[in-house]
């Protein structure tokens, strides 16, 4: 009985047991104090309270650590967890605290700050070492900002939050912030804090004990309930009952859920349904076999991930409680299991699979958390035979690497080092699926003696260790050796199982001080999750302490010949740590854009005077980034003859630290300038995993080069190597640089920029930011037959659609027939809903059209009431448009939702519809006469995407209409180059007029005004069709009206007629272009660019600009704006540079001559059709596209030539026959 209990507490949870109390357990404690104006009088009491709590702690580096943060409008750390290592110092710092002051009170921002900047390894947090993380909040008022998201983020990180408020606080807010509502306390005023001190200490002690002692477990049983297991089901039920008998079922200990599945899964009960063992056993005893076919294990795995391992179903995953899934499956799955199994592992669920001779053992191994967790029986009646095997199979696995100093200085001690390795190996369970071992020796260079996948038996390893020969050599490069094991040993190809969550351990024996730097490579190992242990001698012990994960993981001896003296003690400690080691799965929100940005700065003698400007430029760009470990990372490298890294991508994890490092940069100096060698260096040494690069995780890699001269070496080969690696290179040069060289280095010639001197860098900063997004938005048309798409059908399955359901099913089938269903092409999912939604199958359930059609044909009407469309929209957002369900949104694949709804929703649809649009999902809605058309228009991505039929039997009437809309939808694609010109399809436009209102255009202004009026007359002005804005400018721009000011043509025409000439000088066209980009082509001003609506700018400029126009014009083009222009004899060349294409410009002698070209320029507004025509005219006229484009271009340049009437007639003819295309 003792053995079984121990299984529940240790093996089942994969944690070690040890007793703890408040005075002995290690803790990281952060106090977050309200320092706003409202707490000035109470601050001394708050300070005293903190001091008294600290007095109860054991403050030492390896015991308790303390940090204090104050906040009002903004948070500010008074000191971090690693600032002080003694209680005396902490108390002194607390005693000296001064009230911060300020308003308003932004508690949400403060919670986010401590999460991102205090509970981090760099600030002294030992969260990754399993040390409990506690936050004690003292707040004297209601927050002005939202606290829910940052509070949830802290809880997800595993931080236990205690909140103390006053009568001025919002008690509900305090409860929401706290880890548990019972952890929210209240006092009348902060002077009453002593009255709750003991209550807080008791709560803290309870939490710490809960974190570090017997760990509760959430156990889910997933049972094959298909027709094939009917005879074996009683044995499956008995098996579940026997396992449950071994658990301690209580609300705060073990929780149990049971799910059965066949074609579809069904929860018998959830993790929070029962809180006693008796109730669970009764429920299990009463289980009835589900029945049904086929067996869809993939869908069942997805179901438990999305519906059982959730907080609402009782899962405590976010509280750090181990999550276990035990699958009993009696056959091969009919659907794909890989993606949902991977999603469960990513969630941190430990999956154990038990199959029969009818199961596919490889499938079970793929599903299991580790292949060794897949067990097999002949029949389910044999389950008692594997009961103990299931228990023992969960013994922890480890990958252990020994790194031995083999330099000349350790020759005498090497036999003792060898014996030590042998004795450690003897304690391991060496097997391919248990413990693996590798060994590396090093001196000047490292050399692998054997890898993690070289040997599978203990005997082979011990024999090899006994035969080890001392390497010899000097100097001792420990840093290089650490880097070597990270890059070459802790890798999948060398046998590492880190991606499977197996603990990774390094045991270092070093006998001397390293000749190279060890900090960067040691940090890289720790950040990648490797636990480092070390033994040093009197010559190396301090360095070894810096290298190891925790100082307690290091041991010192006088010489290695003394190892036997400490061997037993260290082995005991080491074994304890090996047993305690559990895999830590980092949680990264992949929906958030991330970038790795490297600055490569010319630090040669020629840039000495310009270096301060380069440094300032880097600082300004960094200010625009979100520097965090899981967001943006930054590195800076300087070079002249040779390159030198100032800091790597993983050196700093906060913007503040990066900015400080940039501010402190010193000019390198030296000559000649070897740009080629520098490019090769960043490729080989900076854009690497060991230096913090995440290119293997698909994170965009950006290199920004600032070079002030021509390179003395060849740049072509290293530049090509960077591009091949996927690095986007942006090059900025000066007049001393070789512009062609800059273009060859850049990812695209258009990404090479130039300034006169580096002091002019601010003039191109916005251009760079737009180019790198550091702007990810490109528009492209989706070809329904060739482009990849993820298509989700959301069907109204309520009682009201029973008679129409066959027609809905047929409609889905016909649409699917038009798709190319393959894993790497189109994917399809179907969800039905009434009161609640239910997925019939996910995007990754089927990979062939045949399977999808079969599944659609077999759909059964769901039934139920009322109709909750809002909940269904939220469901598909949270559970279907996700990577785990097969969505490829993060890969830039268009996401389409087709809703068929037969009635008005009983719940609110606005919020979930907005959430889908924000996610980038294009929603199409089809309703009946019973539906609310306005509701469908609100749900749809665009009101024109809402279609209506009398009854669902009329769906064939809108089939082609829907297909046409699907085929022309415009979607954002972050994978496309920003320089790609958009293909614009559709009749809606946002048109902005930018008029030169300077003193020089006073005489021509009436003609300009008439021109605008005549163009507007050709538009279909309406809120959901064409929109118009107008800006005048001279020295400064001024908006006359915005895109969302007027909804009717009459209002615009009347306003244009009443325009007054602005006047003023000089003429700053560049500033005006930037103004319309930043203030007019925005959603708040009515721009619909995010909805894919074409954006057009028509510029009328009568003189040469006094400022630079190139940067702002480029920024507009790169954001997808089509620029057309009319210039005079004073401005025509400049206008040609500004417009999207020279053919989009027109020149007149004076603006009074505008009527002569009025008709032609009006035709410019048909270019959204012209783009389509240009692409399609080959099929219509049987002439090459190039000739077609040339014909258009020539026509625009010579409006008065004889070809213009022909062009006009040809264009009109094409526009009248769109069916030809």
Automatic annotation (TrEMBL):
> Which domain of life does the protein's organism represent?
Eukaryota
Gene Ontology biological process terms in this record: cell adhesion
Where is the protein localized? Secreted, Extracellular space, Extracellular matrix
Question: Which InterPro entries would you find in this protein's record?
Answer: ECM_Assembly_Org, VWF_A, vWFA_dom_sf
Query: Species lineage, top-down?
Result: Eukaryota, Metazoa, Chordata, Craniata, Vertebrata
- Main location group: secreted
Which GO cellular component terms are attached? collagen trimer; extracellular space
Instruction: Give every VWFA domain span.
Output: 28-200, 218-390, 399-574, 596-768, 790-962, 990-1161
Give yes or no: UniProt keyword Signal: yes
Q: Which organism is it from?
A: Esox lucius
> What's the protein called, per UniProt?
VWFA domain-containing protein
């Amino acid at each position: 009985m003792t053995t079984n209990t121990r299984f529940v507490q240790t093996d089942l949870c994969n944690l070690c047991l040890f007793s703890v109390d408040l005075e002995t357990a290690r803790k990281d404690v952060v106090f977050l104090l309200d320092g706003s104006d409202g707490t000035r009088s109470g601050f001394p009491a708050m300070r005293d309270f903190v001091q008294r709590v600290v007095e109860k702690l054991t403050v030492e580096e390896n015991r308790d650590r303390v940090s204090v943060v104050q906040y009002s409008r903004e948070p500010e750390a008074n000191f971090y967890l690693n600032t002080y290592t003694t209680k005396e110092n902490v108390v002194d710092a607390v005693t000296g605290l001064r009230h911060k002051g300020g308003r308003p009170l932004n508690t949400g921002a403060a919670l986010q700050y401590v999460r991102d900047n205090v509970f981090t390894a760099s600030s002294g947090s030992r969260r990754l070492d399993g040390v409990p993380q506690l936050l004690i909040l003292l707040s004297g008022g209601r927050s002005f900002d939202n606290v829910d998201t940052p509070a949830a983020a802290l809880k997800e990180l595993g931080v236990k939050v205690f909140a103390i408020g006053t009568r001025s606080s919002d008690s509900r807010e305090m409860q929401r912030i706290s880890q548990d509502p019972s952890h929210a306390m209240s006092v009348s005023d902060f002077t009453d804090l002593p009255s709750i001190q003991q209550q807080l200490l008791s709560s803290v002690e309870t939490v710490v004990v809960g974190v570090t002692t017997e760990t509760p477990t959430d156990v889910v049983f997933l049972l094959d309930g298909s027709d094939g297991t009917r005879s074996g089901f009683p044995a499956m039920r008995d098996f579940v009952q026997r396992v449950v008998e071994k658990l301690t079922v209580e609300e705060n200990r073990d929780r149990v859920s049971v799910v059965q599945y066949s074609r579809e899964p069904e929860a018998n009960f959830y993790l929070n349904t029962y809180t006693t063992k008796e109730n669970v056993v009764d429920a299990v005893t009463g289980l009835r076999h589900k029945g049904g076919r086929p067996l869809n294990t993939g869908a069942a795995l997805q179901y438990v991930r999305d519906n059982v391992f959730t907080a609402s179903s009782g899962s405590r995953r976010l509280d750090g409680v181990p999550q276990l899934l035990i699958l009993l499956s009696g056959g091969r799955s009919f659907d794909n299991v890989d993606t949902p199994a991977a999603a469960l592992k990513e969630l941190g669920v430990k999956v154990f699979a038990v199959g029969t001779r009818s199961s596919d053992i490889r499938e079970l191994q793929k599903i299991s958390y580790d292949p060794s967790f897949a067990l097999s029986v002949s029949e389910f009646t044999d389950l008692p035979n594997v009961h103990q095997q299931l228990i023992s199979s969960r013994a922890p696995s480890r990958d252990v690497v020994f790194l031995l100093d083999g330099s000349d200085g350790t020759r005498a001690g090497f036999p003792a080092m060898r014996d030590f390795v042998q004795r450690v190996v003897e304690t391991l369970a060496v097997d391919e699926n248990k413990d693996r071992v590798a060994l590396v020796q090093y001196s000047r260079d490292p050399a692998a003696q054997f890898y993690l996948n070289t040997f599978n038996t203990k005997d082979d390893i011990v024999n090899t260790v006994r035969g080890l020969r001392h390497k010899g050599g000097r100097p001792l490069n420990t840093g290089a050796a650490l880097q070597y094991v990270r890059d070459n040993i802790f890798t999948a190809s060398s046998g590492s199982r880190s991606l499977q969550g197996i603990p990774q351990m390094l045991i270092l024996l070093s006998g001397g001080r390293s000749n190279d730097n060890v900090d960067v490579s040691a940090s890289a190992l720790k950040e990648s999750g490797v636990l480092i242990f070390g033994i040093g001698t009197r010559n190396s012990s301090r360095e070894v302490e810096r290298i190891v994960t925790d100082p307690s993981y290091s041991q010192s001896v006088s010489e290695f010949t003394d190892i036997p003296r400490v061997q037993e003690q260290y082995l005991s400690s080491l074994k304890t740590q090996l047993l305690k080691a559990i895999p830590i799965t980092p949680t990264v929100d992949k929906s958030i854009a991330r970038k790795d940005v490297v600055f490569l700065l010319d630090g040669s003698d020629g840039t000495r005077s310009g270096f301060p400007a380069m440094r300032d430029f880097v600082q300004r760009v960094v200010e625009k980034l979100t520097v965090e470990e899981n967001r943006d990372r930054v590195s800076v490298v300087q070079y002249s003859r040779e390159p030198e890294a100032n800091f790597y991508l993983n050196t700093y994890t906060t913007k503040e630290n990066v900015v400080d490092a940039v501010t402190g940069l010193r000019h390198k100096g030296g000559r000649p300038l070897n740009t080629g060698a520098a490019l090769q260096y960043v490729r080989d040494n900076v854009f690497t995993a060991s230096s913090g690069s995440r290119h293997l995780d698909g994170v965009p890699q950006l290199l920004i080069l600032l070079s002030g001269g021509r390179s003395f070496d060849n740049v072509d080969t290293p530049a090509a190597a960077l591009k091949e690696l996927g690095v986007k290179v942006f090059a900025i040069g000066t007049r001393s640089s070789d512009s062609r060289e800059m273009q060859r280095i850049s990812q695209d010639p258009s990404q090479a920029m130039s300034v006169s001197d580096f002091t002019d860098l601010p003039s191109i900063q916005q251009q760079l930011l737009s180019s790198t997004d550091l702007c990810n938005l490109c528009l492209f048309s989706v070809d329904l037959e060739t482009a990849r798409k993820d298509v989700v059908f959301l069907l109204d399955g309520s009682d009201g659609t029973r008679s129409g359901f066959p027609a809905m099913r047929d409609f889905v089938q016909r649409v699917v027939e038009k798709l190319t269903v393959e894993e790497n092409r189109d994917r399809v999912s179907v969800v039905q809903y009434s009161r609640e939604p239910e997925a019939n199958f996910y995007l990754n359930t089927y990979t062939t059209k045949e399977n999808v059609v079969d599944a659609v044909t077999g759909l059964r009407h769901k039934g139920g009431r009322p109709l909750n469309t809002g909940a269904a929209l939220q469901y598909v957002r949270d559970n279907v448009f996700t990577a785990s369900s097969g969505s490829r949104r993060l890969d830039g694949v268009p996401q389409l939702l087709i809703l068929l709804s037969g009635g008005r929703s009983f719940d609110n649809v606005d919020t979930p519809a907005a959430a889908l649009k924000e996610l980038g999902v294009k929603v199409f809605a089809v309703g009946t006469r019973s539906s609310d058309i306005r509701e469908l228009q609100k749900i749809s991505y665009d009101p024109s995407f809402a279609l209506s039929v009398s009854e669902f039997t009329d769906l064939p009437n809108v089939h082609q209409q829907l297909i046409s809309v699907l085929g022309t939808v415009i979607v954002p694609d972050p994978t496309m180059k920003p320089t790609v010109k958009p293909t614009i399809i559709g009749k809606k436009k946002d048109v902005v007029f930018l008029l030169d209102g300077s003193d020089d255009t006073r005489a021509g202004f009436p003609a300009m005004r008439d021109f605008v009026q005549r163009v507007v007359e050709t538009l279909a002005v309406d809120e959901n069709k064409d929109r118009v804005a107008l800006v005048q400018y001279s020295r400064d721009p001024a908006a006359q009206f915005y895109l969302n000011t007027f909804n009717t043509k009459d209002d615009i025409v009347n306003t244009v007629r009443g325009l007054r000439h602005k006047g003023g000088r000089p003429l700053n066209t560049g500033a005006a272009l930037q103004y319309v980009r930043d203030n007019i082509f925005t959603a708040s001003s009515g721009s619909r660019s995010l909805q894919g609506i074409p954006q057009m700018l028509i510029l009328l400029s009568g003189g040469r600009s006094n400022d630079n126009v190139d940067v702002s014009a480029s920024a507009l083009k790169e954001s997808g704006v089509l620029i057309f222009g009319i210039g005079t004899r004073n401005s025509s060349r400049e206008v040609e540079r500004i417009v999207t294409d020279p053919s989009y410009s027109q020149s007149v002698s004076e603006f009074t001559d505008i009527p002569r070209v009025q008709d032609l320029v009006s035709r410019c507004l048909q270019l959204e059709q012209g783009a389509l025509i240009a692409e399609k005219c080959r099929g219509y006229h049987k002439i090459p596209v190039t000739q077609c484009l040339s014909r258009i271009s020539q026509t625009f340049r010579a409006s008065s030539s004889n070809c213009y009437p022909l062009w006009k007639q040809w264009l009109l003819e094409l526009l009248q026959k769109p069916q030809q295309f």
